[in-house]
Amino acid sequence: MDFRHLRYFVTLAEQLHMGRAAETLGIAQPALSQQIRALEERLGVMLFLRAHRRLTLTQAGDAFLHKARLALQAAEDAVQEARRTARGEQGAIAIGHVSSAMFDPTLPALLHTFHQRYPDVNLSLQPASVNDLLNGLKNQSLDLAIIRAPHGPLPQELESRLFLREALTLAINEQHPLAGKTPVALTALAQERWLVMTDPEGIGLEHVVRELCRKSGFSPQTGQRVKDVATLVSLVAANLGVGLVPNSATVINLPGVRFLAVESNPESELSVVYRRFEKSAAVKKLLAMTPEAT
Q: Does the N-terminal or the C-terminal CB of the chain have fewer CB atoms within 10 Å?
């Protein structure tokens, strides 16, 4: 049995007239009659009573009509679901990100615009470390990730591009002697206790900070290593050290913390990392809307 037989049956059951049903279906009346008889033989029941050139549904036919309608509707729904998914209009996207990516308005604005255009695509956000984000992409628990550069060599199946670039600013306690000076030279901080990220060597914000300090002629003395920028700023509020953070982190308004410009205007970059041969139409649509892609 195929859906063609169901469609023939439902049309005839609704019109109860072989000629009109055949015309609606665009087939010859004898062909429709033959298909209905073949369906009845396959089911082993009589679906229609035929008397005095009139058709009526049997009890079996009436019961079958209800289920046949549901089956045809389910098939149509499946077709529409497949087409909408293929167009990227529905589905799900798992987005990983370093926590600081949400401080800048760029990512929230992108998600808002995408949701407005494609409300049936479910967006899930997962903050995580750089290592966990890359592992999530490799094991396909994530569809794309926003990672603070540099991210190091990527597996062959992944690629990246610039998402945004922003200035770095110095987070310092308001009681520090340099708290009232701006811009601050990094050389003036050579003896400070530095709060740095727990990024792997050569990756992320920690690498950027260490390179900036190296170019300024010193290696930073690590006070504490932290997993996220918010914790770093909190430790600055506790006067446990200083640190460089993305300028967007100034939204963390904690008492006792000053954010100061730095000489030479250092910057930090966020990259979007994704699978090179992405199959999801929804993910492709989101990638096409990222800042560096528009």
A: C
